[in-house]
Structures are given as structure tokens and as C-alpha cells.
Q: What sequence folds into this?
């Protein structure tokens, strides 16, 4: 018994020692390829491609993964690339995801590798730019592939590299993004046990990682409300049922959902009307008004609650005025909550802290933006975290934000992303692997 205890103890301490040694190896390997990671990123940055058009981009990724001896599948959800790296030892399947698309934004940053690309989007001529940092996500994940494939013999499991198109949405009438990749079986064959992903952030200092367990980015549903009344001459409103007055009441009443229905001490929610269209002339009361907006929440319960309240308030308010309201929610856009599995996050937090330094891993408030990484997390437990991309000492309030022509990244933060994804993979495997 004593012997057994001793043996267990020495196994544990050896394992802790081995884990530290692994992190040192990862760190050295990641630092050694920093220049290459930055070079990949600059090349992607100079040649951005919009969602479902990532042909050049995915070609480069697929060729590189193949050169590392990784099994590659292309053309998933249009331009997606999947790489499967089988380790030398049995164990779980860890998926790592990077998104590949740029945005219809004309770059204004003065850099030698700034994008000058022009393309078309929904029939319009537009500039294209990696204005959300997906170029860095790809370069980081290629770096991870390089590091982990060099440790292949010792890997206790399989790594699935997911390079996903169209995170920012697809052109009208097309399918794509994470939802489509899941439909096409990205989480099967081999079956994924866990998924990790990161997003660079231009308003978080390099060297820092921010995270949040449970609801981390909002679930989104858009809505369309069509209010129908009766048209009349603007001088004789008593002959009308005025949909403009009804719509004004509906918009005002919708404000009470967040303030009076959602328990905002637990989770925030957002109800925004972004479009209101009705009428053709100043003195004609129109027959219909159309409104569109976005609803955001952090739990499935709040999703139901917000949508039900929008429907009830809109239809019953219209009814009170003798009009009708038809509500479609979701209308054309629906993302689940980006939900970090609570147990998994607690289990992997020490890995992030050991990688970045405890003081550099920061719990963040929920983000009311959305991410289609949530579609993977609906099927398997996962963690999505944020990586610093703002120069040290920068001001997060004035640093150019994502999706703007001035968006800029400090490239010195990339290797931390490589190390974090490698260490999450190795620590998860070593805790599970036999
Ligand atoms: Ni993004």
C-alpha cells in the first residue's frame, strides 16, 4: 500500500514536471517560428478574401498542412479546410478553430502590406480588408500545426485543425460558416471531444488573455415587425388606422423588455430597432410600416423570454389600436450564445495562467457581439477566449476597433496565441489520454 502510494506520488510529480517541460518546449518552438507566423499573417492581410471566397487563402493553408504530413480535407462548407493530425498515442480528439474571411472594408492603415484589394459584395464594388484579425487567427493556427506536428510521436490523441470560412456571414442566398461546417460533419470522423478557439482583440494589450465562463458572447436573433393599418389622407387621420403611430408605441414599449422582463443582475440583454420604413409622402398615412432589429441575450431562457415579449408587445399593441403586427424572429440571422463550458473552463484556466502568467489572464464582462464559434459549442464543450493585439501602453478607448478601416494589430502578441492553443491541447490530452 505504502509502495503504491509512493508510486502514485512519483507518477503525479513526474507528470507535473513533464507538463512544465512540455510548456517550455512549446514556448521555444513557438518563439522560433514567430517571424514565419508574422510573414503568413502579412501575406493573408495583403490578400484578403470575403466569406465563401477564401480560395487563395484556403489553398495556402491546405498546402502547408499537407507539407507537415497532416491529413487534409478541402472544400468543406465551400472553402473550409480540415486538417487531422493523429498523435503517436491514443487519446481524445481536440479541435482548434480559426476563421478565414475578410470584410468589405477599405483599408486606411499605412502599412507596406496594407490591402489594396477591390472586390464585389452583394453586387457592389467594395474594398476588402482583414479588419477583424482573422488573418492572425490563421497564421496562429498554422503555427500551432507546425509545433504540434513536430511533437506528433508524443501526442496522446488527435488534433483536428478547422479553418472555417465566412465567420462574418455569407453573401445573400448562400450558406456557410460554422453552422454549415457542423452540418457537413466537421465534428465527426473522428468525433471531436472538445474545441478551443481564440479571437485577437485590438483593444486588449499584447501579452494578455481575457475569458469568461458560461455566456461569453451574445446569442443573436434578428427580427422583422410588419405593422398593418389603414391608409388615409394625412389631413383626415380619423379615416386611418395609422401604422406610424402604432409603430412608435411598439418601439417605446419594446424598451421595457430589458428593463422589466430580463433579470439583468444575472445576464444583460439588448433590444435594438435598427430600421423603420413606412410612408412615401408627408401628407399620406401609409398602410404598412416595416421595422427590423436585433435581439441579444446570454442564455436560452432569455432568448425565449425576449422573443416572446417582442411578439406579445408588438401584436397586442397593434391590436389595441385596431392594427395588426406580424413578427418574424429570428428573421434571417440566428447565432446561439457563445457558451464556454463552465467545468471545462475551470479545468483549463490553470493552463492559460501557466502560459500567459496568472496576472495576464483576466476575467472579462460578457460581450454583446456574436460569434459563430457558438455552433460548435452547441455540439461539444468548448472554450473561446480573447488574445491581446493592442500595443503595450495603448488606450483601449481610442485604439481603432474591429471592422473599421483603421483596425491595426500589434504582431508581437501572436506567439502567445500559439502557445495557449498548443498548451490547451496538450494539457487536455494528458489529463484524458491513456
Ligand atoms: Ni472576428
A:
Amino acid at each position: 500500500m505504502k509502495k503504491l502510494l509512493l508510486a502514485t506520488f512519483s507518477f503525479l510529480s513526474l507528470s507535473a514536471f513533464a507538463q512544465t517541460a512540455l510548456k517550455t518546449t512549446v514556448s521555444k518552438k513557438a518563439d522560433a517560428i514567430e517571424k514565419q507566423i508574422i510573414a503568413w499573417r502579412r501575406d493573408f492581410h495583403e490578400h484578403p478574401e470575403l466569406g465563401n471566397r477564401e480560395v487563395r487563402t484556403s489553398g495556402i493553408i491546405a498546402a502547408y498542412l499537407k507539407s507537415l504530413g497532416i491529413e487534409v480535407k478541402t472544400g468543406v462548407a465551400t472553402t473550409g479546410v480540415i486538417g487531422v493530425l493523429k498523435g503517436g498515442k491514443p487519446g481524445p480528439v481536440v479541435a482548434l478553430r480559426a476563421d478565414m474571411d475578410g470584410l468589405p472594408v477599405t483599408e486606411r492603415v499605412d502599412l507596406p502590406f496594407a490591402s489594396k484589394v477591390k472586390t464585389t459584395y452583394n453586387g457592389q464594388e467594395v474594398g476588402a480588408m482583414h479588419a477583424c484579425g482573422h488573418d492572425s487567427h490563421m497564421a496562429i493556427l498554422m503555427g500551432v500545426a507546425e509545433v504540434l506536428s513536430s511533437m506528433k510521436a508524443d501526442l496522446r490523441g488527435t488534433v483536428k485543425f478547422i479553418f472555417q470560412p465566412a465567420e462574418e456571414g455569407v453573401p445573400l442566398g448562400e450558406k456557410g460558416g460554422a453552422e454549415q461546417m457542423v452540418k457537413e460533419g466537421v465534428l465527426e470522423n473522428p468525433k471531436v471531444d472538445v474545441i478551443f478557439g481564440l479571437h485577437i482583440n485590438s483593444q486588449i494589450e499584447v501579452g494578455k488573455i481575457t475569458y469568461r465562463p458560461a455566456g461569453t458572447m451574445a446569442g443573436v436573433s434578428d427580427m422583422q415587425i410588419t405593422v398593418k393599418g389603414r391608409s388615409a389622407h394625412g389631413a383626415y387621420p380619423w379615416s386611418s388606422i395609422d401604422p406610424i403611430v402604432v409603430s412608435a408605441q411598439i418601439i417605446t414599449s419594446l424598451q421595457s423588455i430589458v428593463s422589466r422582463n430580463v433579470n439583468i443582475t444575472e445576464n444583460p440583454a439588448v433590444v435594438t430597432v435598427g430600421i423603420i420604413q413606412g410612408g412615401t409622402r408627408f401628407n399620406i398615412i401609409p398602410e404598412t410600416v416595416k421595422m427590423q432589429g436585433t435581439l441579444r441575450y446570454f442564455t436560452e431562457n432569455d432568448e425565449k423570454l425576449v422573443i416572446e415579449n417582442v411578439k406579445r408587445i408588438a401584436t397586442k399593441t397593434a391590436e389595441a389600436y385596431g392594427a395588426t403586427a406580424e413578427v418574424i424572429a429570428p428573421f434571417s440571422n440566428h447565432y446561439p450564445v457563445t457558451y464556454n463550458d463552465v467545468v471545462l473552463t475551470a479545468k483549463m484556466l490553470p493552463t492559460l495562467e501557466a502560459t500567459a502568467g496568472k496576472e495576464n489572464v483576466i476575467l472579462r464582462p460578457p460581450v454583446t457581439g456574436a460569434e459563430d464559434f457558438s455552433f460548435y459549442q452547441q455540439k461539444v464543450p468548448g472554450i473561446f477566449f480573447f488574445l491581446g493585439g493592442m500595443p503595450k501602453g495603448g488606450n483601449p478607448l481610442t485604439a481603432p476597433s474591429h471592422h473599421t478601416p483603421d483596425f491595426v494589430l500589434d504582431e508581437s502578441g501572436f506567439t502567445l496565441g500559439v502557445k495557449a492553443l498548443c498548451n490547451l491541447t496538450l494539457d487536455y490530452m494528458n489529463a484524458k489520454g491513456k
